[in-house]
Amino acid sequence: MPGAVEAQARWMGTYHSPFGDLPVRLCLDQLRLWERPPLSESRVRVWILLGLAGVALRQRAFEDARTLLHNRNPREK
């Protein structure tokens, strides 16, 4: 992945970045755009999962956050 792409994903996945100050719906929409190949099949995937886990924590969806942090899809319960 190009460095700029990885930096953007890292920004979205870091819990204490300004990205986390954005409305939950906007964060989720942006992360979902990145949650597909080829990004979801690269090491950038980790940052996307962390971002999704952060959104889940903000929504108090603790089980979804735990699932994401264990690298599983929460829709496969």
What features would you highlight for this structure?
mainly alpha
Q: What structural class is derived from the secondary structure elements?
A: mainly alpha
Shape: globular
Radius of gyration: 12 Å
- Major sheet description: none
**Could you tell me the strand content as a percent range?**
under 5%
N to C succession of SSEs: HHHH
What helical percentage do the residues reach? Answer: 55-70%
What does the average pLDDT come to? Answer: 89
Number of beta-strand segments: 0
- List the total number of helices: 4
Distance between the termini: 31 Å
Which segments are poorly predicted (pLDDT under 50) over 5 or more consecutive residues? none
Question: Helices, strands, pairings?
Answer:
Layout: H1 3-13, H2 24-34, H3 45-58, H4 62-69
